[in-house]
Amino acid sequence: MGDMRERDNYGDISRDEEGTPGTSRENRNRRVNRIAFVLLVLILWELVPRLSGISPLLFPPLSRVLETMAEDFLAGTLSERIGFSLLIIFEGVFLALVLALLLSLGSLVGRGMAVWVDTLVVLMHPLPGIALLPILILWAGTGRTAVLWIIVHSVLWPLSTSIVAGIRTIPQHLYDVSRNFNLRLHQRLLHLIIPGALPHLLSGLRIGWARAWRALIAAEMVFGAAGGSGGLGWYIFQKRVFMDSQGLFAGILLIMGIGILFEELFFEALEKISVKKWGGAS
Amino acid sequence: MIGSKGERLLEARALGLWYRGEEGRGRRVFQGIDLDIERGEFVAVLGPSGCGKTSLLKTLGGFISPSTGRVLFQGRRLNGPCPEAVMVFQEFDQLFPWKRVWSNVVFPIKVGGDVHRREAMEGRAENILAELGLTDYLRYFPHQLSGGMKQRAALARALVSGASLLLMDEPFGSLDAQRREEMQRLLLRMWEEHGFSAIFVTHDIGEAISLADRILVMVPDGEEWGGGYRLHELPVKLSRPRSSVDAGFLELYQEIYSYLSTASPESGRTR
After folding, report:
1. pLDDT band, very low/low/confident/very high, at A11 (cuts 50, 70, 90)
2. Do B28 and B118 fall within a single domain?
3. Would you say residue B224 has pLDDT above 70?
């Protein structure tokens, strides 16, 4: 919203004004509407199981789910699970980011390299990480390492595609300008390539984040975790073993909640201080 | 040969450019161009769209290597772009969208070596920005500026770099008529003050006459169009400031107009 007001101040000189009057009100209406919908679903979740007489084992009311969630938080197991999940995802995404940057910079070296990188990405991209699991277990054992590499795999390829696409969208004139002022390699990266590819990199990270999340939960559900520690997927897996359906729903709610939290807060904020400030539309 | 006395800044000899086409048949863009640009001179290159004005300008700036001939800049053979000859483009996307106006304009200082002179050069940058009326916009991002303001910032960047030659590719071509005239006056003022040389590409005859000391018209070479272009020189012997309703101005306009229309590709054969 603050962004909108700022733009309006420049209205007299701004050429292409995207914001039309009423847009911010429309946004607010959308947000209110969205929250209303979520509240409605939550209320129905509470009421339907209670009034319909469905067995709470199949569909427990919301309050019971929240109760279990609170208990597990207090016992410390849930925060441990969440911490485990987030840590391994951060590690995986970071590793994938480094590798993706290396790959896309490699594709800048020459036309031959670009074809190689492109081919590699095209081959690997459609392969679901979970399909690699048996092989990774053979190579790395049923531990954290195997899960980590599945996350890296599921983030690396879409992220590389995004970064390469981002580099391609940098206007030719900016390359000309950087040639004109004799930019050295590190200056070219710092002033041109990295900021130029950033909008695409960020949207690639968004996709990567969602994929990492899915890959992690899937991997943990399939073979659990090693050494008695695991993340949210492992939490759900355990709850299934004990037929604790309240715990199952608690796990699902948390996975959704954390996903939204990152999507709305982390990535939004990241874009607000960079891409959106530069006038990008993403 | 086109050119004259005085201190020579840029020298092109037997310059030719063609692109390799299908089946070994290339497309010739221009050929046999000999050209001298003096220090402090303002030269306009005039021609119909698609005749290769931009290619010529980029070749003179070292952005494209010529198929034949050579370009000497300050006596040395040009092997690539250099910060002494800076291009200003028509398009508005030549500023870094992620840098504010100030960072865009002092960019050549930031990336070009000499740390000790940086402070003095930043002072100079402030003056140039003031002269171009950009002082109030230093904290703006390019997308917050109008087209005219963006072109001012691009011009400011070129001036701040301390380049002795500005290669301008229809820099005001995307502006409305009023802005364009305003920018022309501004450019001439900066030229008189800072003493750079300029090669100004345009397809607007009036713009060429109001700005330049000499006009180089790109005319089709040889019997058939497609044989590439060469340059025909017309001096502008009008005192500045020039008015477009002045008799001399109109006469020259007529002369160039008829010259261009007989030499245009639509007329089939030339002369």
Report:
1. very low
2. no
3. no
